[in-house]
Amino acid sequence: MIPKQPSTLSLCVENEKVTACLAGIHSREYTNVLKNVKDILHPEELDYFSGLKYERRKLSYLLGRYAAKVAASDYLNDKKLTKIEIFSGLFNQPVVRHLSFDTPDVTISHCDDIAVAIAFSPCKIMGLDIEYIAEEKLSVFETQLTESEKHMTSKEFDTVAAGAVCIWTIKEALSKAIKCGFTVPFKILELKKITPVNDSAYLSEFKNFKQYKSISVIFYPYILSIVLPCKMMVNTTTSSMLSYFNQLVY
């Protein structure tokens, strides 16, 4: 049995309704996906996958492609995953190729045992990132925080590690949304404000990119952040997102 169906995010921009499709997969499903790889990967993807030598890279590639293709499949309303190709663009960003004229943009993120992806209209701009909350990596994440952001981690979060990782995911999600990756200093992506919505969700604003906002959800030991334009209103509750990812993880 191949993994879970995607969760659909309901979004609206002013009076226009938009749909973004969010999907994830846990590494425990890797064996199932691998058994069905010929029913999942496009021939071009399968050729690339077959040439990979290292198991860790094969796992990362296949889980990431699966999540992206399931999300794109839901967006396109085409359940034939082999008809959907995800290839790398000029900046190594994932690009969807499909017979439809309305192909979505996708963003993919990997973290230890999980791969997640979101498919959305190319007329909109979104990005996402997921990370594992690891105390032992705190010093690495803290090097990318401004003094103001360090204050946020101690004020708004249960632990400094959770705060540092959350801010990292927000910045990385923004870098994917604007397709710059890590080619710019992290300080340019600095947060202006982060506000708790409840015990497991946060809303954030940016100092230099005021047209964007971020929604972050914590499902321990992971944090997922989605960056989107400020005008886009998310109708799906953070509790629904948490429920989906808790089922995915546990």
From TrEMBL:
Domain 4'-phosphopantetheinyl transferase: 126-206
Alphabetical keyword list: Transferase
Superkingdom of this protein's organism: Bacteria
UniProt xrefs under InterPro entries: 4-PPantetheinyl_Trfase_dom, 4-PPantetheinyl_Trfase_dom_sf
GO molecular function: holo-[acyl-carrier-protein] synthase activity; magnesium ion binding
A Pfam cross-reference name: ACPS
Protein name from the UniProt record: Phosphopantetheinyl transferase
